[in-house]
Design brief:
This protein is of the alpha+beta class. The chain has helices at about 20-25, 30-35, 90-100, 135-145, 155-160, 180-185, 205-220, 225-230, 235-240, 255-260, 260-265, 300-305, 315-325, 330-345, 360-370, 375-380, 380-390, 410-420, 435, 450-465, 480-495, 500-520, 530-535, 550-560, and strands spanning about 1-5, 10-15, 55, 70-75, 85-90, 105, 115-120, 120-125, 150-155, 165-170, 175, 190-195, 270-275, 285-290, 290-295. It has a six-stranded mixed beta sheet with strand order 2-1-6-3-4-5. Strands 8-7-12-9 form a four-stranded mixed beta sheet.
Length: about 575
Amino acid sequence: MRIVRIDLISQKIGLSEIPKEWEKTYIGGKGIATKLLFELPQKIDPLSPQNILIFGIGPVNGVNLSGASRMTCVFKSPMTNGYGESQCGGFLAPEFKKAGVDFLYITGRAEKPVYLLIEDDNIEVRDASHLWGKDTFETEEILKKDHKGEVLCIGQAGENLVRFACISHRKGRQFGRAGVGAVMGSKNLKAVVVKGSSRVEVANPEELREFRKWLIKTARERLQSLTKYGTPGIMSLTNEAGVLPTRYWTKGSFDGFEDINAEALSRYVKKHTACYGCAVVCGIISKTEDAEVEGPEYETLFALGSLCENNDLKAIIKAAELCDRYGMDTITTGNVIAFLMACSEIGEVEEDIKFGDSEKIIELIKKIAFRERIGNILAEGVSRAAEILKVSVEPIHCKGLEPPGYDPRGLFGMALGYAVSPRGACHMRSCAYRPNLMGAVDRTSPKGQAALVKELEDMYCVVDSFILCRFVCLPVIGPILWEELAKLYWITTNEPITVEDLKKAGERICDLVREFNIREGVKEDKLPSKFLKVTLEKGMSERTLVSEEDFKEMLEEYYILRGWKRGGRIE
């Protein structure tokens, strides 16, 4: 595996090999990128030139295979001051592989706006003054016209150091969470363009052909809802279960659900799309008279819809387009706006914004991206905004990152998963919402949740090191689980590996991430007090609260399983 190192201060570019022993120990992608992150000086400001952006791919990327189009980025997060990671699908990973770049390691800050041009072994730092101030759609159009290839870029939110800014790709694919776009903006780096011409080979091509046939058939059978509706299809399940976050985490179901669910959205779906080589085809393009956007995804519909009690679907589509253009994470955007609505409702802020006010939502998105007036405060995320505004409304977050669209009071696996997730409240680190919702474990009991979360976290550390899409590796229904991962590793590398080897690698990577957070002073695994003390309105008919005793029981068991307590690997 090859790594390109770029110092934007000196504009020095170096090309070297990743140590061979790392490849089986840490596999690729997330594992190796996390190992590299320890080169970062301790306790630095995430928006300082010293922070590192590490883009990485794994052993399966570049292969024409469903789900094998993901790329990871690892960094120190400006949201949490700890471990930051984000993944993106689309067409970037195959292009990096064809260019012979497995890892792109960027440090320093350029004196003026620049972009990187990677054309196989020819790598240049180029002036981006003509791109600065443009949104992600405009930037990608210009760079594709000039160079072709694949583009990742930031919009105005990243330039203005909005702490939850994204890095965008193909006008809708995102490195979305934890503020990676702000880190890129802090480096005066507007974009990266990649063009590769090499042919991607695997060790066992005939076995890959058979694996691909099996995966296409199995994925199409098991993931029909994703193909038909995309991610919005899950909203009917969360709403019915009483875990659809509504009115800033006070309700578990939304009266306006039918106005913004997958069936309602289908009226605006223009076409379906897929990432490179993928048979799942989960992407949708929605269009109204004044907006066109990839999605909105479920997380966007919840954050800018039910969480804000907004049932104006056209406005949500427009808001999603603006977030994509400016380059902002929609989960945090919806959370900070809903937080402001809750503060306004009790008269603790000057702004008058009511729940459901779709016009004000769109206005606030613009103010946040350009850090105008109240937008300058909201651009800091809910944790910092609450401190600045000095309000009584509890800011809902874990480690500084706001939760996605699953209320943990009805999904105990997610309660534990949010608390222990190294990048803050996150559904992707364990995907425990799936087995919780599908009845694999009792979702309102602490029993079995720690083992479930630990097993899934380990698996997804491996998945994010291969790197594969969650949708072909979903718990319960995913075609690719431990056995298939072991087989696929052999197919692509010709290196035999057992399930036990992979499980140990998952634990090793998870421990490494924990070690980084402890080094940076990010240690607390806790939930907002609201989830422990306030029951859901219009939620489940049974238990609607994670009691402190339930949470403590799950956390203690989790630590024991991890070996993180009483003489374990990590204090």
